[in-house]
């Protein structure tokens, strides 16, 4: 208890003299750390991409234990459902809104 009294007296004496120890504003520090975490966080880690929009540049099916149908859209590769893979053609503008793939604009006549 004695050390607390001495510490309190020291703080009171410094406050009376107008001297204060600079303390960082804790709320501002927490806000900056949270802002940096929000900017660097990728909310799509481990999930499908949240939004995709672009032109189909390449399409191929990977072989392996499970078949995966992949489209290259704007230099990124995206796995897509087989029915969408069958409908999409090179040059089509497609989008993914987080739930479903759709064809926005056809490149030309459908080749079947």
Short description:
The chain is built from 3 helices and 5 strands; from the N terminus they run ααβββαββ. It has 112 residues and is of the alpha+beta class. β2 and β3 form a beta hairpin.
Distance between the termini: 88 Å
| Mean residue pLDDT | 77
Please count the helical segments: 3
Strand content: 25-35%
Q: Trace the largest sheet across and list its strands.
A: 3-2-1-4-5
Could you say which structural class the secondary elements and strand pairing correspond to? Answer: alpha+beta
Number of strands: 5
How would you describe the shape? rod-shaped
Task: Provide a descriptive summary of the structure in words.
With 112 residues, this protein is an alpha+beta fold. The chain folds into two domains: 2-40, no CATH class; 52-105. It has three helices and five strands. The relative contact order is 0.12. It has a five-stranded antiparallel sheet. It starts with a helix and ends in a 7-residue tail after the last strand. It is rod-shaped, with a radius of gyration of 29 Å. A hairpin with a 5-residue loop joins strand 1 and strand 2 (68-73). The model has no long low-confidence stretch (mean pLDDT 77). 33% of the residues lie in helices and 28% in strands.
């Amino acid at each position: 208890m004695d050390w607390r009294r001495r510490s309190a007296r020291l703080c009171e004496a410094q406050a009376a003299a107008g001297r204060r120890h600079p303390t960082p504003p804790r709320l501002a520090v927490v806000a900056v750390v949270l802002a940096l975490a929000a900017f660097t966080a990728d909310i799509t880690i481990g999930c499908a991409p949240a939004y995709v929009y672009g032109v189909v540049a390449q399409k191929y099916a990977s072989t392996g234990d499970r078949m995966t149908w992949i489209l290259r859209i704007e230099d990124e590769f995206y796995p897509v459902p087989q029915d969408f893979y069958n409908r999409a053609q090179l040059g089509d503008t497609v989008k993914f809104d987080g739930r479903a793939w759709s064809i926005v604009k056809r490149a030309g006549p459908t080749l079947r």
